[in-house]
Write a structure and sequence with these properties.
With 330 residues, this protein is of the alpha+beta class. The protein is 11% helix and 20% strand. The longest helix is centred in the N-terminal third of the chain and has 11 residues.
């Protein structure tokens, strides 16, 4: 276990990591379906080199390009929809060729289990986008929407630009899903892009094959969420080596899951569920609204102060969610 001692001098090395601060873990129940406690199954350790925290090229083992070898997609079964033909049948409110029912079931089936520190404040409002990708693939953008970045543990009082806490934390995950084939009804997670301080000097984001993902007892993909900073990692060891060794998942013993409900679907940029910059929080104590499709600093539904977090619109655009077909290679 690495030392977590953080001083002001240490903070000086952090330069522009994203942060947060909240203290309740919410385990959602979605449409009467109870979450399953994650019992993680370790697979190949796949994450950033602690000596080189920038993302590697897509041909590295942890970042396989489309069609470039690897293993089998991580399998999941949808609640009622069995194949792509059924996915394209029914009411399609955002006009992207995928029915509303399909978008909900795909987002729910692959929503990640999250391993978090029991004292980390992970209060959030999750939203998502589901749309076609290349060929018959389906793309999902999971926007975690943390209310705060709590800062690096023991250094949350440091100035924001040195790794201290601030309002809003816009981490996300992008998944490429392959539709079911044959009679097994198994859909597959082909690739997952896990954001970890994307665009910052300590960017440890990674593109991983579904076969490299850990799973919980329900077969759901698992991500490890760094204590305080909420960066996403494929394993505990990858987390402990992330952000130039400043991220940690040493004591991440609590589990929760990305909340998926129908109201969380953002639709498409030209067929939005919510008006521009009018996306609400489910927390009754947070009356402000946020931007997702439109440019604007993300403040976590709180009064703007400090630097806030990166705009979700930029991340959505980077992965072509503002176009006809999205991609996992952002």
């Amino acid at each position: 276990m690495k030392s977590r001692r953080v001083t002001i001098a240490t903070c000086m090395a952090l330069m522009l990591i994203a942060c947060t601060d909240l203290r309740t873990i919410v385990e959602p129940t979605v449409d009467g379906i109870e979450p399953v406690e994650p019992t993680t199954t370790a697979t190949a350790d796949c994450g950033p080199d602690p000596n080189d925290p920038t993302p590697g090229p897509v041909d590295e083992p942890c970042n396989p390009g489309t069609g470039g070898g690897g293993g089998d997609p991580l399998p999941r079964t949808l609640q009622t929809i069995q194949n792509l033909a059924e996915c394209r049948s029914g009411t399609d409110s955002d006009g992207d060729g995928l029915s509303d029912k399909c978008e909900y079931e795909v987002a729910w089936a692959f929503s990640p289990a999250m391993m978090v520190h029991p004292n980390d404040n992970v209060s959030r409002d999750e939203y998502y986008v589901v749309m076609p990708g290349a060929g018959n693939s389906i793309m999902i953008f999971y926007a975690f929407g943390y209310h705060r970045d709590n800062g690096i543990p023991l250094c949350s009082a440091c100035p924001e630009w040195l790794g201290g806490s601030h309002v809003g934390d816009s981490e996300f995950i992008v998944m490429e899903i392959s539709p079911a084939r044959g009679s097994d009804n198994e859909w597959g997670l082909v690739y997952a892009y896990l954001s970890a301080h994307r665009g910052r000097s300590t960017d440890s984001s990674v593109l991983a094959g579904g076969w490299n993902m850990e799973t919980d007892g329900d077969g759901r993909p698992v991500v490890w969420v760094s204590d305080g900073k909420h960066a996403n990692y494929i394993s505990q060891s990858a987390c402990d080596g992330g952000a130039a060794n400043f991220d940690s998942c040493d004591n991440n013993t609590e589990s929760t899951r990305f909340w998926v409900d129908r109201k969380g679907n953002l639709g498409q940029i030209n067929h939005r569920k919510y008006r521009s910059c009018r996306v609400p929080s489910r927390n009754r104590g947070l009356s402000r609204t946020e931007c997702f499709w439109d440019s604007g600093t993300f403040y976590g539904w709180q009064k703007p102060r400090g630097g806030g977090a990166g705009a979700y619109s930029g991340f959505l655009s980077a992965f072509d969610f503002d176009k006809a077909r999205a991609t996992v290679h952002g």
